[in-house]
């Protein structure tokens, strides 16, 4: 019943993401998700995925110049050409490795009409590129503690954007970690916006470690998510406190 995807941006980050694909399989994960796979050849990634027979749930668009503080590009009015290059690259990879979703990263931008329109226009550009594929887009509200100034921070804001672009192709990535920090009342929000949710991610609040302690009891939350009608994967996007293997005990509760 429960299906978990290993986020290889944070899990097993002491080895290459291609090596981590095999580790995810060995440790009982049902799927893979990447953050930024672009340093690896997409064909090499696809070969490893085929060998372990695991689906890919998602990849992110490039953040931009991280050293200069970039955290995504799609809501930045002065960076439209770069944003669209990032979209094209993500679509290229997603088609090769058969990723179900592309996380379209908004970036650090003010809440002006100009930023809002830029984000909408770039999402429409992306939906046009994926219209003849099985790929969808997801947008993710991020918490302002870890991501100060990020454009997208609330589930309600994300839902409005989905409606304005294409509710069939653009969904919300509902990360319980981010939403608990920013807004709280997570299960009620999840229920209210379930038709707009395309993927779920988890981590403990507040340390973003394994989902086995903190403010949210995921042994309760995850079954409730499925009872409410969610049918997708739960993305393990957390920062292991020690080694990834040492921290996987949380998953045994759901694999009994």
* Mass-distribution shape: globular
CATH architecture: Alpha-Beta Barrel
CATH topology: TIM Barrel
Uncertain runs are: none
Query: What average pLDDT do the residues reach?
Result: 97
Structural class: alpha/beta
Count the DSSP helices.
8
**Strands of the biggest beta sheet: in what spatial order?**
1-2-3-4-5-6-7-8
N-end to C-end Cα span: 11 Å
Radius of gyration: 17 Å
CATH class categorisation: Alpha Beta
User: Could you spell the SSE succession in H and E letters?
Assistant: EHEHEHEHEHEHHEHE
Compute the number of strand runs. Answer: 8
The CATH superfamily is Divalent-metal-dependent TIM barrel enzymes
What fraction strand? 5-15%
Number of domains: 1
What can be said about the biggest beta sheet? 8 strands, parallel, barrel
**Helix percentage:** 25-40%
Question: Topology, pairings included?
Answer:
Elements: E1 4-7, H1 17-26, E2 31-33, H2 42-52, E3 56-60, H3 80-97, E4 99-103, H4 113-129, E5 136-139, H5 155-165, E6 170-175, H6 176-182, H7 186-193, E7 197-202, H8 218-227, E8 234-236
Parallel strand pairs: 1-2, 1-8, 2-3, 3-4, 4-5, 5-6, 6-7, 7-8
Helix pairs in contact: 1-2, 3-4
